[in-house]
Amino acid sequence: MIKLRTTDSSKHSLMVMIFCLAGWASVASAQDTQWGKAMKAGDELSRQGRYSESENSYRVAVAEAEQFGNRDPRLAHSLNRLAIVHKEQAKYEEAERLYQKALAICETVHGRNHPESARVLSNLAQLYTSQALYTQAESIHERSLSVLEKALGPEHPDVASNLTNLAELHRLQGRYALSETLYRRSLSLREKIFGPDHRDVASSLSNLAALYHNQGRYGEAEELYHRSSAIDDKTLEPDHPKVAVTLDNLAQLCATQGRLAEAESLNRRALIIREKRLGPDHPGTATSVNNLAVLYYQQGRYAEAAPLFLRALSIRERTLGPNHPEVADCLNNLAELYREQGRYPEAERLHRRSLAICEKSLGPEHPSVASSLNNLAALLQVQGQPVRCEPLHWRALKIQEKTLGPHHLAVATTLNNLASIYYDQERYAKAEPLYRRSLAIREKTLGADHQDVVQSLKNLAANCYGRNRTSEAALLYWKAITTLEKMLGPQHPKVITSLENYAALLRNMKRKTEAAEVEARVKTLLPR
């Protein structure tokens, strides 16, 4: 399975950075120190997505704060902000060093069980989450949460933020039930603290909606996105950048359901907002450009997708640097476009560059590395090179099982990819246990009524047919059709195509009467 990479909404949930020294604004507002001026400049440049310039301002702030003494809270605050900007640029080692230094100051000045120390811990945990160091991230998030609950009480806004970050960590690992519990707890807290129409409540609704989207609970996801959007309408200007985030999320949900015209309208609105409010060269604008390009790619509108992918790539290379993971995402997407156009050498060059960036910036065992390996392997498979692509899929599987666990949806995808290699080689006996394991993971994680489960059923059906177990193949394929019809309705193009394929399968099995009945049904469903 090929995977294009959207941004913002591909991550779906928005993790919350917790800032130190909530009372600092009263010091900086007077602008009577070089430190305050540098911090203000860094904050503004960071807001504009000008991270390298923001980094320079924060470095000035750190130098100024060092003059106050190495135990001054302003130094910890400066280091924390500088670390955040390093994280945005994928400079993870330097970000970790800065967080650890800020944490040491906070713990020395305030103690290990003080909220300021817990806030830096939370940010450090998010850094580890970005690197897929999930075990470390989880233990630190739980420590931070424990400190905040004891120091501030279980109903403090910072507790809600920490719950959100912990929920997102579990979502990334495919622990959807636990993630939902934490997201709901955070939502309930925010509604109680702020009321039902607060921006933080809107964020919680979007996070929970994203989780439901992952699980194929599209109706519930859409309802929550619309509730979040309604709060946006009440609390934000109509062209606020945060409105664009909600629009992008809704667009991807619509695209998943085949509502492509609606998705395009939402993507375009998001892009217009970001271009107006953030500027044409902001990383956030690149996100909307990339997501619109992905939508065009999915519709086969390659001539329209290509310049958008190139524009997103150009913006990210300029603003984030050539070795940022989001640059790798753009390279991956452009490579997939070239693959569809049969431009295989160019596609392979871009995939290998994307893989190299992921390995360098994220480490050789990050899930994004596995994703890049899978896509490179799929390109080689299209070119009839199974010997070269098989070890790439196996390496991807090993990474995913180690970092995500053996029951994660990404594992199911790679198992499916491996099985497809063996299926193409007519090695059906070797393919079958992989297809079955992939199906079991998807059914357990997503439930029976999900399109990925439908695809697994069809793949297993085809494999059974290849092994001359035609009756079993027909049963599996019919199960897939009934599930698809339940999800999308009887007149959806995917249902009609599946029925046509099922009729052909029945004819090959010499079950002509049943085939004719299915064909007659297809005729009643076709538009007149």
Counting helices, strands and paired strands, the structural category is: mainly alpha
**Which shape, going by the Cα principal axes?**
globular
What CATH calls the topology of the domain at 453-528 is Serine Threonine Protein Phosphatase 5, Tetratricopeptide repeat
Number of helices: 25
CATH superfamily membership of the domain at 453-528, which one?
Tetratricopeptide repeat domain
User: Which range best describes the helical content: under 10%, 10-25%, 25-40%, 40-55%, 55-70% or over 70%?
Assistant: over 70%
Based on CA atoms alone, the radius of gyration comes out at 25 Å
Q: What is the average per-residue confidence, as pLDDT, rounded to a whole number?
A: 90
- Terminal CA distance reads 34 Å
**Strand count:** 0
Largest sheet: none
CATH architecture of the domain at 453-528: Alpha Horseshoe
User: Which stretches are low in confidence, meaning pLDDT under 50 for 5 or more residues running?
Assistant: 8-15, 19-32
Q: What is the CATH class designation of the domain at 453-528?
A: Mainly Alpha
Run of helices and strands: HHHHHHHHHHHHHHHHHHHHHHHHH
Measured by DSSP, the beta-strand proportion falls in under 5%
How would you portray this structure in words?
The protein has 528 residues and is mostly helical. The chain has a domain at 453-528: Serine Threonine Protein Phosphatase 5, Tetratricopeptide repeat, CATH 1.25.40.10. The chain is 78% helix and 0% strand. The chain contains 25 helices and no strands. It has helices spanning 25-28, 34-47, 51-66, 73-88, 92-109, 115-130, 134-152, 157-172, 176-194, 199-215, 218-235, 241-256, 260-278, 283-298, 302-320, 325-340, 344-362, 367-382, 386-403, 409-424, 428-446, 451-466, 470-488, 493-508, 512-525. It starts with 24 loop residues before the first helix and ends with a helix. Residues 8-15 and 19-32 have low confidence and may be disordered.
